[in-house]
Design brief:
about 100 residues, about 0% strand, mainly alpha, rod-shaped
């Protein structure tokens, strides 16, 4: 989203420079530019709010559901790897490994 935004800002700044150079009254141009900048900023904020606002609660719900799923998982705790009946990690078991 930043690349198109940077292109728009660059084009806007280039057009502003051309208008100021060609204008008879630069103060009027700056006033118009200020209004245009305010409208552009309001539009960009509205787009960001609708984009992030819509994805925000969904992302929060997804993160919450993943945390709950992780809490429900029953993983055996390996407190003593040398306990009887537990093979060592990467060690051969009771039966030979098959390829």
């Amino acid at each position: 989203m930043l690349a198109p935004l940077s292109v728009v800002i660059w084009a806007w700044a280039y057009a502003l420079g051309q208008f100021v150079v060609l204008a008879d009254r630069p103060a009027e141009v700056f006033a118009g530019v200020a209004v245009g900048a305010a409208l552009l900023l309001a539009t960009m904020v509205a787009v960001l709010v609708t984009t992030v606002g819509a994805a925000g609660p969904q992302a929060v719900r997804r993160a919450r559901s993943l945390r709950e799923r992780a809490r429900r998982r029953r993983v055996p705790r390996q407190l003593d790897p040398d306990a009887p009946g537990r093979p060592r990690p990467r060690a051969p078991g009771v039966r030979p490994a098959t390829a």
